[in-house]
Design a protein that fits this description.
The protein is of the alpha/beta class. Helix content is about 45%, strand content about 20%. Helix 1 packs across helix 7 and helix 5 packs antiparallel against helix 6. The two termini are about 25 Å apart. It binds guanosine-5'-monophosphate. Guanosine-5'-monophosphate binds next to strand 5, strand 6 and helix 4.
Amino acid sequence: MTQASPVHPGRLFVFSGPSGTGKGTVLAALQARHPELWFSVSATTRAPRPAEVEGRDYLFVSRERFEELIETDGLLEWARVFGNFYGTPRAPINEHITAGIDCLLDIDSQGALQVRSRMPEAILVFLEPPSLDVLRERLIQRGTEDPVEIERRLAAAAGEIACESVYNHILVNVTVEETVARIESLLAAHRLEE
Ligand code: 5GP
């Protein structure tokens, strides 16, 4: 035997929620407070936004490379979101879970459903905006999408909210601090279940 296995494998927590809910801000705050958690880095065919860093925010890949990842079964799940492809590389997830490290995924609801069927033990969390009006306001404030794209994201949000019954937990993101605290209790509660 080369190395002792951890007593418990890591857990897989999947976070989804409509674009503009504040999921990115909440998960960044969580990541800063919990270096023991591992945040999956998705592959995407989307172009990088100005402040985004290759390998930290995403693995920015060509359409050909993305198709190769699908064909070689390199993705745990993948989906087309707002005209671009996004997917979760499978190998790093397996490695961290085997090493006993909890993994967090920030993916859309199509991806969350695929994870639910492939890894039924995954814990699915849905972050919801207080209302669609608040969501519209947050998307406008963010300033990264034009008005047509904002309307597209609002229509998609209504669809995502409609599938929330498959999630284990639903959290309404009113303030970042409160939502992070609720996620921390949820992570602790799942650790106690062992
Ligand atoms: P954005 O382009 O704003 O970074 O992300 C758009 C949407 O794609 C978000 O809802 C985000 O959660 C989702 N997304 C990011 N990575 C993945 C992934 O690997 N798989 C899936 N299914 N969705 C993803």
